[in-house]
Amino acid sequence: MLAPASVSDYRELARRRLPQLLFDYVDGGAFEEATLGANRIDLQRLTLKQKVLRDVSTLDTSTTLFSQALSLPLILAPVGFAGLLARRAEAQAAVSSEKANVPFTLSTVGICSIEEVRQATAAPFWFQLYMMRDRGVVREILARAAAANCGALVFTVDLPVLGTRYRDVRNGVGVRLPNLAKLEFAWNFAIRPKWLYDVVAKGRPLTFGTLSGAVEGARSLGDLLKWTSATLDSGVTWKDIEWLRNEWQGPLILKGLLDVDDARDAVKAGVDGIVVSNHGGRQLDATISTVSILPKIAGAVGDKTTVLMDGGIRSGQDLTRALALGAKACMIGRAWAYGVAARGEAGVTAVIETIRRELQTTMALIGRTCVADIDASVLHD
Ligand SMILES: Cc1cc2nc3c(=O)[nH]c(=O)nc-3n(C[C@H](O)[C@H](O)[C@H](O)COP(=O)(O)O)c2cc1C
To answer: pLDDT, tens digit, for every residue of 6-23?
Structure first.
């Protein structure tokens, strides 16, 4: 490949650069990966109407989310442990986002802390929260996010337990391995010198950023994943949303809704936005793709709250399809993770700019000059 042209090219570059275990951690999904596949297939099934002879000499891709003016209806989704993919990856991605004027969302389980990302950028990045059993720890994290002027709190609700990901198990993540297998495990890392230099030599400390005070002695992805499942509170209910609403003064977004009644309950609970999401097919497998349920959810609550969507967005065409079905903007997870793994900050910038160009080209070819004009009428029945 002389020059990467698309997000899938960045995926290929990431595959070549990362140890197999880390590539699979990003690329894979839960169980048989049916939902992971459905997110993509169902997007690709939607065909756009070509429209001609409209004046498309000026195109405006900008939008406003939670009073924040953005250059694109795009948000970088929270990606846990991203700092294992490239040196200080969360800070690098936040810098790319700031330059592109789209929000970056920092995961609770980022390698970089809230304060490190704050130091790297001036723009108001978003913070994603997983509820931990110890509400004191949660309160303290919220105070740090507020002090860092985070633009929104994204509360992820689709991970009461961690989905089973066969690829991770096969790669020995969190598994006690016999000695020979341990050698093979180490070999997978040894044959990736560029990654070793970037992340292991130059990307330290490889700790749990924001939570590093709370996690002692975690030395591997397996340890961190184990700690995560042991610490997360699987007893969270709508009552906790009330609690959170009182604790957090800024925009509050629930991420991980796939059901119309849940979306209505979210509106009742007073949240500012929802993300229609199945965690990129990493949690419940054999559930519905996000783009399939999006029109129903947007139809039910789209006039009462800000509806965002993620899952399978790999191009400006995909973004157009989701906007057409009622999303105000979309999050991308793997797309930026591939970019940062392949080429750090420049890779994330390239991914965002690729999606921007694709959106512009698509808008010109469907005859729409601003994103607000992209509605269901741009799709074939
Ligand atoms: C490697 C990886 C790690 C993720 N970690 C988190 C996380 O820490 N918190 C969270 O809310 N979602 C997490 N997600 C889900 C993403 O935020 C997002 O919902 C999903 O990636 C969207 O699908 P896409 O990857 O097809 O764009 C993760 C996704 C991936 C691929």
So the answer is: 999 999 999 999 999 999
